[in-house]
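User: We ran a pulldown and think these components assemble together. Before we commit to crystallization trials, I'd like a predicted model of the whole complex to look at. Sequences follow.
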Amino acid sequence: MLRNIFLALCIAAPAAAQAASTTLTLPAEAPLPTPRPHARLVHAGTTLPADEAACRRDLKRLQVAFAPASPVKAPGACSLPHPLKVTALSPHIAVAPAAIINCQTARAAAILLQTTGQKAALEHLGAPISRIRNASGYVCRTRNGQKRLSEHAYGNALDISRFTLSDGRRIAVKSYGKSPERKFLKTIQAKACGIFKTVLGPGSDADHADHFHLDMRQRSNGSTWCK
Ligand SMILES: [Zn+2]
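Assistant: Here's a predicted model for the assembly, 227 residues in total across the polymer chains.
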């Protein structure tokens, strides 16, 4: 019964979702690399791919607050067929402003912060995280100083520039001298590697001195890039 209702909704949805989708115009100088498999799935409202549906079930289990956002259509690159608008990574960790990211990025962020993040906050700072500052989710752009598209152009990356604790303290992501703040941030940066495929932050390079860049870029050999 429920399945039939779901199927009926899926069949009825394309026209509405098509109307709601966003067409994105690339700047003339932006490179157009070969789209990734998911970027070719420019569709609106059809039944979700199995891995996407499974990922969203994981988000619900993790109590992530999210809603589907309008698909982004673009010629070749920068398409985002299944963006989510994420407003919290748990009932206790808000995301401000809301992040437009794909499901796997949201799931990794929730796993990282619900476990390692909260443990590190309590151990080093004496209070849990209540909010993260989203510095960037989806954006169609190249990597700094390079022609290759950033993982942000696939909704596959999240930048975090600040943590707010339940007692109101704000911990900016930056370099600290020997301090509990440094231990807190270094713990998260270290443990993020593996949950995320790319982890950059203070100490990595000048571009990441004031935020964590976390992404899910798939490399051919499955390796990670963490500095
Ligand atoms: Zn980034």
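The pocket of zinc ion is lined by residues 136, 152, 157, 159, 213 (CB under 6 Å). That may be worth checking against your pulldown data before setting up trials.

User: Thanks, that helps.
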